[in-house]
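REVIEWER CHECKLIST
Item 1: Sequence provided? yes
Item 2: Single chain? yes
Item 3: Sequence as submitted:
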Amino acid sequence: MSRIALHLNRYRLVLNRLAPAAVFVLFCTSGSAADVTQYYLPAAFPVTLRFSALDPARAPIDQQWLLSELTAALQSQSGRQLESAGEATVELTGLRNRLDQEGSQIVFEYVHVARNRIGDEWGQTLTIPVSYRIERSKDVITVRLSPPQMAKFATRTTPGIFFLPTPKLGHIKQLLDDFTAIMNNAAFLRLHRSVLLGGAEEAGVSPQVCIASFERLLGRYGYVKGEERVFDPQRDDVFLYRTAQNNVPLKIAAVPYRGGSKVFFEAWVPFELRADGTVAGYELPQALATDVRRILEDQTPRELESGLDGIRNRS
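Item 4: Structure as written out by the authors:
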């Protein structure tokens, strides 16, 4: 049985013996003031991360999105992912991060706490606020992360009913080692996003022939369960476009134009920003337009001919 389950069982056994009024106090009463101590962190140098400032369509990368994704990516590197268990009282354990843009900080918080219905928590937390400075040039967004010298360790006792056990964090050194590993690996982070690419091409055949060419050479796109439906395959002509790493839906609309057709295309295609300034997927706008033209000329798309060799990287 896991440590979380053992703690929850202990809570349930005690709560089952409490009067309803006492249970209400536990679930709805604010916790007591925290007992706070400080821990020195292992010496760490600031970490400088560099990301492309432009997406594959040459549009500026949103700075707030980048910071939010960076916060989530740092948390994902932890060996102590956040877990929760329970219903009326929820027990949380692991690392949770939050972005504090007003204070220019990414706050790392290792927790083992219980939380009641009104959001109050009691237990133990280790908080490490990492300051950041972000600068933008024409082509690069630079993020400089500066770990602090001290971490704040706080214990908040159980509200209302003091004989219930207070959740414990465990060995602080192990948590500090986890944080150090995250910072050491920050330079290897990769952020993922999709961009809407589109355009128009002319063809000398009817709209029906154009659509038939896409269906024959690409096939229809089938959404899997739980996948976001960015296009409606019931109303639109949506085809399976293959990149080196993903299959993406390609929307095609063909209308009569000058004795032939004008074909409009749209696709949300993935790309990747890396913390060393390199990128992946940035050749896709040109590749997509080229493949649409090839299909309209009744030729096999370039990606299928090359056997999906891989998305090239650009420094």
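Item 5: Key structural point noted by reviewer: The two ends are 49 Å apart (CA to CA).
Item 6: Recommendation: ____
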